């Protein structure tokens, strides 16, 4: 166990699997009490159990990030139980691929509700408690390399992740103007081994009947030649939450093995 965020309280949405799980485990391993939220209750409970077994502190809360009243309740619960909130990792997200000509409006709206509305609602409801805590805070919004460059058959996903990118910068300016000590940054993962490829894989290769081979894709597209793991993203999130990044706000942390520079 480390102490880079000792005594802090963190909220990680979509923390039951993938990048969210990696972030929750990493923050807990460095001393934070982590509130893990998701709609995958069994997996969420498993994550918390693992954190506690490793000597960390965490709790699980069922949480639909698209519902404003639920967000209000989640943050109120953190205020009541912990009295503070230092870090928010807006990670919950989905990926719906396919041609823009065939995408259903209901799918467009569902993806936007989770990937973009959820980030907005989390930020809106968490900042007041961060300000009450009195020590500033850090908001980390998980975007994607798809928020930096376009990708065929992922127009809806790109739209949400691009929105997260500029939303982050605008809120960073608002918090800086308020002199509240809250820093707001976005993280842009590349080809990371996570469950999201089960849903966006067909967009990468419409003729495939199975999830894409990330190792093969990485060999071809990533300059470093390998895929990433949730821990690679979690390491960046930990840095953005820690005091080591005290002079960093409104920035894009790209963790992609060089994918976007090719």
Protein traits:
single chain, 262 residues, alpha/beta, Rossmann fold
Description:
This protein has 262 residues and is an alpha/beta fold. The chain has one domain (9-191, 230-261): 3-Layer(aba) Sandwich (Rossmann fold). It has helices at residues 18-29, 41-53, 68-82, 105-133, 155-178, 197-204, 214-221, 230-241; strands at residues 9-13, 33-38, 57-62, 87-90, 137-142, 182-189, 252-255. The chain has a seven-stranded parallel sheet, with helices on both faces.
Kindly report how far apart the N and C termini lie. Answer: 37 Å
Mean pLDDT: 95
Under CATH, the homologous superfamily reads NAD(P)-binding Rossmann-like Domain
Count of DSSP H/I helices: 8
What structural class do helix, strand and pairing data support? alpha/beta
Write down the domain tally: 1
In percent terms, what proportion of residues is strand?
5-15%
CATH architecture: 3-Layer(aba) Sandwich
Largest sheet, strands/sense/barrel: 7 strands, parallel
Assign the CATH class.
Alpha Beta
Number of strands: 7
- Element-level helix/strand string: EHEHEHEHEHEHHHE
Q: Helix share of residues?
A: 40-55%
Main sheet: strand order: 3-2-1-4-5-6-7
User: Which residues sit in consecutive blocks of at least 5 with pLDDT less than 50?
Assistant: none
What is the C-alpha radius of gyration, as a whole number of Å? 18 Å
Shape: globular
CATH topology: Rossmann fold
């Amino acid at each position: 166990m480390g102490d880079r965020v000792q005594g802090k309280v963190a909220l990680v949405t979509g923390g039951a699997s993938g990048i969210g799980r990696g972030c929750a485990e990493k923050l807990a391993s460095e001393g934070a009490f982590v509130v893990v939220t998701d709609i995958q209750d069994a997996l969420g409970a498993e994550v918390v159990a693992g954190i506690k077994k490793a000597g960390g502190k965490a709790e699980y809360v069922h949480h639909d990030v698209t519902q404003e009243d639920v967000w209000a309740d989640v943050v109120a619960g953190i205020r009541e139980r912990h009295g503070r909130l230092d870090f928010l990792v807006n990670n919950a997200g989905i990926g719906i691929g396919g041609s823009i000509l065939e995408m259903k409006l209901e799918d467009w709206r569902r993806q936007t509700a989770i990937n973009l509305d959820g980030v907005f609602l989390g930020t809106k409801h968490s900042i007041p408690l961060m300000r009450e805590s009195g020590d500033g805070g850090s908001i980390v919004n998980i975007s994607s390399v798809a928020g930096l460059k376009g990708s065929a058959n992922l127009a809806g996903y790109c739209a949400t992740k691009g929105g997260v990118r500029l939303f982050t910068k605008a809120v960073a300016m608002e918090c800086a103007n308020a002199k509240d000590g809250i820093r707001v940054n976005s993280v842009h993962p590349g080809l990371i081994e996570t469950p999201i490829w089960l849903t966006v894989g067909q967009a990468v290769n419409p003729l495939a009947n199975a999830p894409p081979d990330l190792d093969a894709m990485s060999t071809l597209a990533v300059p470093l030649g390998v895929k990433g793991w949730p821990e690679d993203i979690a390491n960046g999130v930990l840095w953005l939450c820690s005091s080591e990044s005290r002079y960093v706000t409104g920035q894009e942390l790209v963790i992609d093995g060089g994918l976007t520079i090719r």
